[in-house]
Amino acid sequence: MKKILELISEEVMSAFEKAGYDKAAGKVSVSNRPDLCEYQCNGAMALAKALKTAPINIAGAVAENLKDSKVFSEVNAVMPGFINLNINPDFLSQYVAEMSGDDKFGFEPAAKPLKIMLDYGGPNVAKALHVGHLRSGVIGDAINRICKYMGHETISDIHLGDWGTPMGLIMHELSLRKPNLPYFDDSYTGEYPSEPPFTVADLEEIYPTASKKSKEDEEYKAKAQEATFKLQSGVRGYRALWNHIINVSVTDMRRIYDKLGVHFDLWNGESSVHDVIPGMVKYMKDGGYAYISEGALVVDVKEDTDTKEMPPCIILKSDGASLYNTTDLATIMVRKEKYNPDRFIYLTDKRQDLYFEQVFRCAHKTKLVSEDTNLAHVGFGTMNGKDGKPFKTRDGGVMRLESLMNDINEATYAKIKENRDMSEEDAKRISEIVGRAALRYGDLSNIPAKDYIFDMDRFISFEGNSGPYILYTIVRIKSILEKFVQTGKKVEDCVISGIDNASEKELMKELTYFSQTIESAYEELAPSKICAFIYDLANAFNSFYHETKILSEEDAAKQGSYIALINLTKKVLETCIGMLGFEAPERM
Q: What are the pLDDT digits (tens) for 77-113?
């Protein structure tokens, strides 16, 4: 099913061609002056310059050719040469009726489905997830869902930090606290304990303590580096201890990500490519891609068209140690060999833009991926407090992600209990659903690259541009449909049959933007596009609801049309929040 703007544009293009002009000038857009018209075409302005004629003459000729159009109810050529258009209500209602009969509301999935590898999350093992992990998780998860809705195959990977110095720090500190553990006994040959010698809370205390000590004590730091070397060299006890760290930490991460509604297909870490790095380095050397510069092994990635400094990509440091570059390139290589994706999408802090540009250029130059493999980085901004600085706890520390989620849920719970009469169990359950929507929508409604202010009151508000407002709108529609069914009628028997008032027309117009919104959100990797769409759609529905008697309408055909329209609205809203990673309760 073609998008509404495509159909409208085709009608105007035909009129341009009929008037003897280039039909390409007939492209139509949504009006930026809704007080004057619904849609507009500015093509006559551009044509006039080339043809050296007055644009109003071109616009007038085109408007004349559209006077009998069944697509438009009104067409006006206005100075200096704009074409103002209002859509025909019958054409609009027929289009929306066709949308309602399609499983995807007229959306056409990608003609050539791709295999897309998404890399988001990126937490370090043994460290508590904090608010800095929110954006990567929810933006990445939403983009993953959007890609799937587009018809693409996706593979998501959390890409854990599980192999570097932090592991050595934890192991060395543990060896000091519990020196009699068998993992530190080189002569031990038996089976290691199946239960870990620590809890997740222990790990979250051990790492910062060890990190602080290493910055103050050079000998301590050297011992931690030695432990890291033993782990990476395959020393049996250290590998067994590492497995415990991974299992304990990942189990807790899964629990928190599940509460947030963020999911991954793969839980791989840097460790998963450790063994392939030597082969990759040899390949880069043998292929003439990498060379020694100031003791380090590097690959030049600058291009003749560069207007800014582009440093070489360092593959190995002068002491032979690998870096994040090394691990990320090896990961790209392994993913290409194992899954052969057409596209890679990475989500990290936007301050890593230059880093990923280097890595991606290096991957292409060294032919780790083919020329037509798309490598994309979505850099996101920071979630800040009301002081404009990165969000902190009251005592100045970095807030845990789970603590933030709990605070949102508690605030939502208090609001629900204050205004609604329901059981404790229902209030708790609904507050978790609404709290997740508040947090995810509050983040996703911002353009990914922009910083934003975390405002609890705004996030949990049942009014304005918030997750709870969207959910409340859906619940309101559900309530109307339920009351309609209680009269003995069936929603599925209702059909959209016309337009009776301005608010109904506005609601239909908003619905028609569904397909182009999803495409735009995918192309720009911006879930915020969907948030903006459903906020406008929710506003349009609520205006229609307040201005229209739906359940008390006596004309059966008219009432049936209203019911079919709001049912479509509900389905579109539910589909969109599904892509954003949350759901609506039955009541609020």
A: 999 999 999 999 999 999 999 999 999 999 999 999 9
Which residues in the chain are classed under CATH 3.30.1360.70? 4-87
Give CA–CA dist 499/429, Å, rounded. Answer: 39
Q: How does 558-579 read in b/e, with b if 16+ C-beta sit within 10 Å?
A: bbbbbbbbbbbbbbbbebbbeb
What is the model's pLDDT at position 390?
A: 83
From residue 517, how far is each of 34, 150, 522, 529, 537 by CA, in Å? 19, 12, 9, 6, 12
Question: Which DSSP letter does residue 193 get?
Answer: P
**In the predicted model, is pLDDT for residue 54 greater than 70?**
yes
CB-CB contact of 315 with 281 (8 Å): yes
Tell me the H-state helices in 316-390. Answer: 324-339, 353-365
To 10 degrees, the CA torsion angle through 140, 141, 145, 151? 50
φ, ψ (nearest 5 deg) of residue 322: -85, 165
Q: Long-range CB contacts (< 8 A, 24+ apart) of 198-206?
A: 198/174, 198/244, 198/248, 199/248, 200/248, 200/249, 200/251, 200/252, 203/126, 203/170, 203/245, 203/248, 203/249, 204/126, 204/127, 204/128, 206/126, 206/170, 206/173, 206/174, 206/177
| Architecture of domain 271-380 in this structure | 3-Layer(aba) Sandwich (3.40)
Tell me the pLDDT of the chain averaged across its residues.
96
d(CA 443, CA 452): 8
| 297 touches 187 (CB < 8 A) | no
What six digits make up the tokens of 467? 């997750």
Which of 2, 107, 16, 92 has the alpha carbon at shortest distance from 55? 16
Tens digit of each residue's pLDDT (9 = 90 or more) over 376-400: 999 999 999 888 888 877 666 789 9
Kind plus residue range of the DSSP H or E element containing 72: strand 72-78
Token digits of residue 419: 């205004």
Q: What is the DSSP letter of 124?
A: B
CB 527 within 8 A of CB 146: yes
Q: What is the pLDDT of residue 396?
A: 65
Phi, psi of 119 (to 5 degrees): -120, 105
Q: What mean pLDDT comes out for the span 209-234?
A: 95
Confidence of residue 532 (pLDDT cuts 50, 70, 90): very high
All CATH 3.40.50 domain ranges in the chain, comma separated: 271-380
CA distance 462 to 359: 44
Binning pLDDT at 50, 70 and 90, where does residue 246 land?
very high
What CATH number should be reported for the domain whose range is 4-87? Answer: 3.30.1360.70
The confidence band for 275, taking pLDDT boundaries of 50, 70 and 90, is very high
pLDDT at residue 234, as a whole number: 93
pLDDT for residue 398: 82
Q: Give the Cβ contact number of residue 530 at 10 Å.
A: 27
